[in-house]
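tool_log.txt
---
The assistant was asked to compare two proteins side by side. It first ran the structure predictor on the initial sequence, then on the second. Raw inputs and outputs are pasted verbatim so the downstream comparison step can read them without reformatting.
(1)
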Amino acid sequence: MAVYIAFDVETPNRANNRMSAIGISAIKDNRIVANYYSLVNPDTHFDYFNTRLTGIDANKVRNAPNFAELWKEIEPIMSKGILVAHNAVFDMSVLRQCLNYYGIAWKPSADYLCTVQIGRRVLPNMKHNLDVMCDYYGIALDHHQADSDSRACAEILLRYMDSGVDVNSFVKKYRF
């Protein structure tokens, strides 16, 4: 049985190349077995738009670890399974850029799933925004909060699996 690591990142500005928060929800044996959340000091500026969207500003992350410090803690989690995100190309790109910026060598590629891409195939006649999918499935969501978004992503993946979708047929490789 596969292990899935649903994650979501929030970013401090329009460059979308650093994190200001990360949420992680691990799925094993078709249930969520662990949740993780941390603010991240992005070592860069915050745009008003991002702060307004997420509620995270420079003051809130002042004492938070930067990505390099945090990576030591989350790398074992991120390495345990197939990465999953809602609109995965965005979250995977931010992860790659953070690894590159801090000079962290992880692995050349990682298996990943995108719950938006799966949704477009299995539920083609609806929008696949995270809030729309959560309304459809009755999943609680505090949108643009990394812990809530990662848990919602995990719940959506579980709903797909419960309905008989072979999610492993959607696994792709992301090159770092």
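(2)
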Amino acid sequence: MVIDKETYHATGGHLLVRDSILEDMALGQAFAKLKVPLYSIPHRNRITFRMYAEGFHTLFNGWSKNMALGAQRSSLWTILIISSIMTLSFSIPIGLIRSLAAAQLRAGLFFGAAYLVFAGVLFSGVRRIGAFRWWSSLGFPCFALFFVIVLARSFMMQLLRLPIEWRGRRVQIK
């Protein structure tokens, strides 16, 4: 989101959404209500930034803060697609490991090929939304596990009403 300084201060900026969990979405909605023009600009890799430049801890807390609420607001279709991707992200490597451990060559070749195809499909998608290297898609089982851990943590913190430390403030996950 890019906004000029004068408009940001005139509208109240992040003060409008200081109690929001998904502050970026809430800020966009607040700006829309205030008739601040909003645009989506296809950037074709002309705009770059690094999310969570502060490191892993900030990323882990940031995603934990947002993920349960995002999942609850998702459509059934979105949940089915993500669940299918997660199922493949675990079942393909598990099948590969099992077939290799049992010395089942055909199954090993099948799951090995499926692993490479799935990594390729993921890469073709993620390269459109970020600056990812081809080999990062090969680590998809690790990323899927991270996703599940963050999602479980987010729901647990929400269920137990535990606050999370986020950029110098304590945020209650609602």
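---
observation on (2): Residues 54-172 form one domain. The chain has a mean pLDDT of 86.
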